[in-house]
Design a protein that fits this description.
The chain has a 6-stranded antiparallel β-sheet with strand order 1-2-9-4-7-10, with helices on one face. Strands 3-8-5-6 form a 4-stranded antiparallel β-sheet, with no helix packed on it. Helices cover 35% and strands 20% of the residues. It is globular. It has 2 domains: 150 residues, Jelly Rolls; 93 residues, Homeodomain-like (Arc Repressor Mutant, subunit A). By secondary structure, it is of the alpha+beta class. The two termini are 26 Å apart. It contains 9 helices and 10 strands. Keywords: DNA-binding, Transcription, Transcription regulation. This is Helix-turn-helix domain-containing protein. InterPro entries: AraC_XylS_family_regulators, Homeodomain-like_sf, HTH_AraC. Pfam families: HTH_18 (PF12833).
């Protein structure tokens, strides 16, 4: 499967964090490809260009996915099953961008998705005919960029970087001490703009950082990864890892994971 990563255009830089394109063009008519989605702190918009629908496996059950949908914070592992001669274009949004889409509440989209075809007065049949007629991925991304600009209601994005989130949750940090009196305000901000609590958001970023180290590490001891990513100990790391992947780190490494969606994006 061909994977393309690209930065958003200047038109979308305040809305979109990164774009990934997955194209199953291996030439085998019966070969599907699996794309795993782990928690990474980013909501997103998912477009599929395919004659046959992409399926989503979640908690052991498969569901047919709509051609265009928006999803919120992803806490539990999910797998997209991409049919042959299909393309998936993923726009990863900044953590707070969902709150600036029309008629969308981030908290209601945690581990959920919203079919855009049924939510917005837009002729999707024309959009997808146009996408199929485009002769390049670049042209398709530009078409979707134009569409997204119309979809967002004048966003005022309060992008929260990983470093800022960590400082907010660090009891030794002056920033954290300065907001102690406004704890409820911070909690409310996260729930309203991101969809989850500050604690859960921190856990997502911590897990994702550990996942990246695990994938890149050459037999590095788990205790070292746990220490580097600020888990209390190895047992704590394993418990949290299993929460987000449904497996232990060692079991994960024994499995095959050729395609995983964006990892550790908030550096």
């Amino acid at each position: 499967m061909k994977v393309i990563k690209q930065s958003p255009s200047l038109q979308l830089k305040n809305i979109v964090h990164q774009i990934e394109v997955f194209e199953n063009d291996d030439g085998l008519k019966t070969k599907t490809q699996e794309l795993i989605h782990f928690a990474n702190g980013l909501p997103g918009i998912y477009f599929q260009i395919s004659e046959h629908p992409v399926k989503l496996r979640f908690f052991g059950k498969c569901h047919l996915l709509p051609k265009a949908f928006i999803y919120g914070q992803n806490l539990y592992p999910k797998v997209s099953i991409i049919p042959p001669y299909s393309k998936v274009i993923l726009f990863y949004l900044h953590p707070t961008t969902l709150s600036y889409f029309k008629n969308i509440t981030p908290e209601n989209l945690v581990d959920q998705y919203l079919d855009l075809e049924n939510q917005h007065p837009f002729n999707y049949s024309i959009l997808f005919k146009l996408l199929k007629s485009e002769d390049s991925t670049t042209a398709q991304v530009q078409t979707l960029t134009d569409y997204l600009i119309d979809l967002v209601d004048q966003p005022k994005v309060h992008f929260i970087s990983e470093s800022k989130s960590l400082r907010m949750l660090d009891s030794k940090s002056p920033i954290n001490l300065s907001i102690q009196g406004a704890k409820r305000t911070v909690q409310r901000f996260f729930k309203e703009h991101i969809g989850i609590t500050p604690t859960k958001y921190y856990q997502v970023l911590q897990f994702n950082s550990a996942l990246k180290k695990l994938l890149l590490a050459d037999n590095k001891p788990l205790v070292s990864i746990a220490h580097e990513t600020e888990y209390a100990d190895q047992s704590h790391f394993i418990r949290q890892f299993k929460t987000f992947t449904a497996t232990t780190p060692k079991e994960f490494l024994r499995q095959s994971h050729p395609y995983i969606s964006l990892i550790n994006p908030l550096k």
